[in-house]
Design goal:
- By secondary structure, the chain is mostly helical.
- Among the domains are: 53-130, Tetratricopeptide repeat domain (Serine Threonine Protein Phosphatase 5, Tetratricopeptide repeat), CATH 1.25.40.10; 134-215, Serine Threonine Protein Phosphatase 5, Tetratricopeptide repeat (Alpha Horseshoe); 231-316, no CATH class.
- It has helices spanning 2-19, 23-47, 59-72, 76-89, 96-110, 112-129, 136-148, 159-174, 181-208, 212-225, 232-245, 249-262, 269-278, 288-314, 360-365, 405-411, 414-421, 433-438.
- Helix 9 (181-208) runs antiparallel to helix 10 (212-225).
- It is elongated, with a radius of gyration of 42 Å.
- The chain starts with a helix and ends with a helix.
- 23% of the residues are buried.
Length: 441
């Protein structure tokens, strides 16, 4: 009984607190006192992500620092929106260049095909608007890196690799004194390694099938454009063999000599020396600097080992672990030589081609056009070479013979020729000519 009385008393006291005019405030203050420390901690934790935001700072600076903080925490869309607000609201701000660069960096950090493509466009815009900014070399380097990160394996599309090579070469031409230069050269060597691997696979495919002209073009491109290729000695050997198959032994000896002089530790050295002796050509000797470089490349290749090869097979990206160290080749690609006719050039004498109108009746007759038929002017038909004094033309075709006297006589009566041309030729009647008329085939 006492328990029930105590419970009723407590309930009455609680109800009296709520019935008081300020009872609810007391309970609210109680709950606030309990929850306020947690709220203060959370608020401080959020503001700790925004360092240096004082009430007296400039608004453009506040926007820039807030956007940089959002991007650093992976909230790229929010950061870019804030930076765009800065660009639109304060077009004369001192943070304009930094904001443009931060937008490009956000796309670059986000990655992916769409992110890196947009990053390339933003970096190029930055270089266009701020070409003398101290961040311009880094922006140009990241334009090349955007393509570098999208490169595929050597047997896939190499458009991104070619674009990366062009951007890195542009960096070397525009910023030769930049501190980023060693990184650019290292990446350029890797890009050229990938391009050389692609050409070598195609060239070897053509060589094994005996298509030597196609193999020669790609192997010569490797020899001239990518001398630092990890398999350059193999490419030179196949190029020499290709030229020998094409009966160009003198040119083949040049590439055999390059194997001996530039790649002294190659397994093809003994074979190259043998071919030089067989072709009665001198055998060169490598210098000490070339020997030291070859030994360094051999150590790096041994260091890569089997693990790098297996990693390259598993990974979707290219395997660039065999890239050699050495000077970067900046030679432009060889232009394709296409022979074109010079303007104003005249055809040689004896090969004049003339076109004359042909009567419609001759076209309907189905007969081959006679050179002496009316309407042609006794001239050579289209596509035939006209010669002088009965001499054969340069193309090797014999001169057309003079028409017989009967043809000359008929050519003097154009009306008779035209009437005879309108008559369709009739074939010989056989035993089953009636069935042939009934059956269309």
């Amino acid at each position: 009984m006492r328990k029930y009385l105590m419970r009723a008393r407590r309930a009455a006291m609680a109800s009296s607190v709520w019935r008081r005019p300020h009872g609810g405030r007391y309970l609210l203050c109680l709950f606030s006192a309990l929850l306020l420390p947690g709220c203060i901690f959370f608020h401080r934790h959020r503001e700790s992500d925004l360092p240096g935001l004082n009430p007296g700072t400039q608004p453009d600076k506040v926007l820039y620092e807030k956007a940089v903080n959002e991007i650093s925490h992976g909230r790229y869309d929010v950061g870019r929106l804030t930076l765009q607000t800065l660009l639109n609201t304060y077009p004369d701000s001192e943070y304009l260049a930094k904001a443009k660069l931060a937008i490009a960096d956000s796309y670059y950090q986000e990655g992916g095909v769409s992110g890196l493509t947009q990053a390339e466009a933003e970096y190029k815009d930055f270089i266009t608007f701020f070409p003398t900014a101290p961040e311009a070399p880094e922006a140009q380097f990241r334009v090349g890196m955007a393509h570098f990160r999208l490169m595929a394996k050597p047997d896939r599309d190499r458009a991104e690799a070619l674009a990366a090579e062009a951007e890195f070469k542009e960096f070397l031409a525009k910023y030769p004194d930049s501190p980023v230069m060693p990184r650019v050269k290292a990446r350029l060597r890797e890009v050229q390694e990938l391009l050389a691997q692609s050409d070598f696979k195609v060239a070897k495919f053509y060589y094994q099938r005996g298509v030597y002209p196609a193999a020669r073009g790609r192997l010569q491109e490797i020899a001239e454009q990518y001398p630092n290729f990890s398999q350059a000695d193999e490419a030179l050997w196949y190029l020499g063999q290709t030229l020998e198959h094409m009966r160009q032994s003198k040119e083949a000896a040049t590439y055999y000599a390059r194997i001996v002089s530039l790649y002294p530790l190659s397994p093809r050295v003994d074979e190259a020396k043998g071919r030089l002796l067989a072709l009665h050509q001198p055998v060169p000797r490598p210098t000490k600097a070339v020997l030291a470089r070859a030994e360094a490349d051999a150590r790096n290749r041994h260091r890569a080992g089997l693990f790098a090869h297996l990693q390259g097979m598993i990974s979707s990206g290219p395997d660039l672990s065999a890239t050699r160290h050495g000077p970067v080749e900046l030679k432009p690609a060889r232009p394709v030589q296409v022979e074109e006719a010079k303007a104003g050039a005249t055809a040689p004498v004896g090969n004049t081609i003339s076109a004359e109108p042909v009567p419609e009746s001759a076209l309907k007759s189905g007969k081959p056009l006679d050179p002496a038929s009316p309407g042609t002017g006794n001239s050579t038909p289209v596509g035939a070479a006209k010669t002088n004094a009965g001499r054969p033309s340069d193309t090797g075709t014999a001169a057309p013979k003079a028409p017989p006297p009967q043809a000359q006589q008929n050519s003097q009566n154009p009306a008779q020729d035209a009437s005879s041309a309108d008559v369709l030729p009739t074939g010989k009647k056989g035993r089953f000519h009636v069935l042939k008329k009934l059956i269309p085939f």
